Amino acid sequence: MLEKYFTQLEASLKAKLEAKATARRKFVYEIARIGTRIFDDNWSIGWTTVFVPYEILTSMGVSGMFVEFFGAMLAGTGMSSKYLELSESKGFSTDSCSYHRTIIGAALDGLLPEPDVLIGASIPCNGGVKALKRIGEIFNKEVFILNIPIDITPKSVDYLTEQFEQMIEYIENETGRKLDYNKLKNSIRYNNEAREYLVELNKLCMNVPSPANSNDLKNFIMIVLLLGTKESVEVAKLYRDEFKSRIEHDLKGATEEKYRLMWIQNRIQFKTDILSILEEKYGAKIVIDELNHIWWDSMDESDPLRSLAKRIITHPLVGPAERRLEVITQLARDYKIDGAINPAHWGCRQSAGARVLFKDALQKIGIPLIHLDVDCVDERNYAQGQIMTRLEAFLEMLSTY
User: Fold this and answer.
1) How far is C-alpha 57 from the geometric centre of its chain's CA atoms?
2) Nearest 10 degrees: CA dihedral of 80, 81, 87, 91?
3) Where on the phi/psi map is residue 257: left (φ > 0), alpha (ψ -120 to 50), or beta?
4) Could you give the strand order of the β-sheet that contains 339-343, starting from the edge strand earlier in sequence?
5) Rounded to two decimals, what is the model's pTM?
6) Domains in the chain, ordered, with CATH?
7) How many CB atoms lie within 10 A of CB 215?
8) Residue range 260-278: mean pLDDT, rounded
9) Can you tell me the mean pLDDT for 309-338?
10) Tell me: the pLDDT tens digits for 129-162?
11) How far is 11 from 265, CA to CA, in rounded Å?
12) What count of other Cβ atoms lies within 10 Å of the Cβ of residue 117?
C-alpha cells in the first residue's frame, strides 16, 4: 500500500510539474521521490530523527527519512488516526508526541518496510530517539544514537566528528555500503550552492509585502532530506526565482498582506483551511517559519565531517533556550512581523516547556504571540471553530497595535 501511494504521488506530481513548473510542485515532487526510494533495491533504507546528516547517508547509498516526516505524511493523507489508535491500544500514552506514536503504530501494523539502519540524534528531543528504539525492537535492529554536545567549542566539534566516523562504520557493518568521500565532498558543494539560494529567498520574504504566501514554504524543513544533492539546488533556485519574479511583477500571484505573521515550530499536518481563511478573509500571511531559518555558515568542502558537525551543534534548538529565543526575536525584527503563532503541539515537551519564554521574549520587542493548543498530527480532538474564534480575536487585537 505504501509503495503504491508514493509511486502514484510521484507520478501525479511529475505530471503537474511538467504541465506547470512551480517551486512548490518541484519541492513536493522531490520529497515524494525520496519516499519511492524505500522500495528501490539500489538504496538502503534509513529511519532517522530530523537532525541527522543526510549528506553522509546519501553519499553511502542510504535513503534517510526522519520519523516526524512520516508521521506528518500519514496525517496529511488522513491515515494517522488509525495508527494512533493502534499504538495507544498497545499502551503508548496520549501524552506523548503524536508524530512518534503514528510511526510506531505504522510499524506495528506492518506498513513500514524493514529498515537497514536506524539512526537518531539527541536533538531536538528524546521522543524521536525513543520512537526509533521502539521501531528497533519491532524489527530487531540496533539503533545508533548521536549524542549532540550543547557547547559550541572546537572540542565539541571534534567529539561529534568522531561520532560521525562511528556512524559511518555502523552503516558499513549493517549495509555493506562504503562511504564515497568524493560524493561527500560534492554534497558539501551542493549544500553551499543551495544555501546561497535559500539565504537569498529568505531575504526576498523580508520584502513588505512578502512574495511568499502562507503555504508556499509549509513544512520546508523537509528540505534537509535533499541537502547535499543537485535537487536541493534546483528547488532552492526555483523558489528564489519565483519569489524574485513576483516582486518584479508587483507581487502578481501573492495574496494581499495586512498582517505579517511568524509561525513557531511545526505546521498543522492534517488538512485544514485556516491559513487560507486567514489570508483570503483577513490578509494575514505567514511570512516566516522559525524552522525555515538558515542558521549555518558556508561549509568547508575539504573537511566535510567537521563542517557537518559544526552545522548541527550551532542549531538554535541545541543547548539553552536563550539561543532559540535570540533567533526568534531577530526573525521577528528582520521580517517586520506583526504577530506570532505557536501551535503548542500537544506532547512536545521541548517547546511546551518554553512557550512562556517565547511569549515573554516577543513581548519585550512589542510582538504579540498566540498559543494554539492543538495536536499537529492528531485531528481527533481538533475543533476548527474554536481555533478560528481565537485567531480572529488575535487579529482584532493586532489591529489596535
Assistant:
1) 18
2) 140
3) beta
4) 284-289, 259-263, 339-343, 369-372
5) 0.93
6) 42-178 (3.40.50.11890)
7) 13
8) 92
9) 95
10) 999 999 999 999 999 999 999 999 999 999 999 9
11) 31
12) 24
